[in-house]
Structure prediction request, 418 residues.
Amino acid sequence: MRKVIGGIAVLILASAAVLLLLWLLNRPASADAEPAPPTSIAVLPSPTETPRRRDWEAVVQGELLAAQTAPPPTFTLAPTHTPTPPLSLLWQHTPTPTRFQPDRATVAAPIAAASPEAPAIARNNDPRRGEFSPPPEQVPLSLDPRDHFWFRRPVDSSANSASIFWYAYGSDGPRNEWRVHHGVDLPNPIGKEVRASAAGRVIWAADNYVWYENGRYVESAYTYGNVVIIEHNFGFQGKRLYTLYAHLQVILVEVGQDVQTGEIIGLSGRSGVVSGPHVHFEVRVGRNSYYETRNPILWMAPYENHGVIAGRVLFSDGTPVQDVTVSLLRNGRVVDTTTTYVNPRLPNKRTWNVNSDEVWRENFVIGDVTAGVYQLAVNVGGRRLVRDVIVRPATTSFVDFSESEAVPLPTPSPTPAG
Ligand SMILES: [Zn+2]
Prediction:
């Protein structure tokens, strides 16, 4: 009996031990249980794979290199071109041109019978002066095959290129007191970076400009002060292209040096004959000569969402009307004015000052116009001509005025007696 009891006790103990073991094995892990060590996933290159630089290393090294060689932060690298939206979209979203709204005091009245010429906007009060400009389009740019915006601006977007309108190409000034202008002026303080507008070779980099061609004297001008001229490594219609940068404070390139688009060639200043520090910029086509300039606005890429207006004002016989005011209006208000070229080159003319573009044959140009719908107005021989013009981004809109189509200006009606 005692043996039987002992056997039962052993059986019970054994069963209990088994049950305890089972419970221990199957109990759920408690919350404060020590977490299992993380499974380490070691990614090792497979033995067959050749060890090579990882992509991120290339990116970091590239960025480090770029940081070392990057131009100063003010330099506007050519941005990715914003695709032009479809026209339908564009005109739905034409923004109000707050940037280009002149001050109340500077708004010229719409052309009226009493004033044969629209009064010129007081340009020294130009609200655009000194304002930050949007990035320019990438060069070369020819959305319209007739366009050749192949040069970047010689100054940065953070610098001032708005006042290229102050002393327009082909103009002799608001009161005809200046020499006819063969370039555009970009007023900027002394010391702003001036950059090559496209790649090429420096052919002049000094003051007291004197130019010889095959040993023969061509021209000279001390008035330019420190001036750089670049002959570009591309041409136009089989002709060579040159750009000129005058009144520099410092020249930072040498003759014979090859420069890339945007490379610093000097600093803006007031050397030569100037009324204030600015960059005088010329585009010369075919030959490095003062008499072979073209309007730089037709060559410089516009700012994003801006376009250019070019046109001509002709007498009935087809000859260009010189030195007449062309007014750009939006919603009935004058937003810009320019004048037609004085003494442009004509086929039967011995002397001339400036040239029209090979493609456009214009005698006036207005640049940096916000895309949108405008009116252009001009008075010729007591007649008023008005044209609607749509300005599209990154392209030139052309407007033709002929005296023969002009509508006579209305004669003012006598004041009714009363
Ligand atoms: Zn100038």
Observations:
- The pocket of zinc ion is lined by residues 181, 183, 185, 280 (CB under 6 Å).
- The longest strand covers residues 226-236.
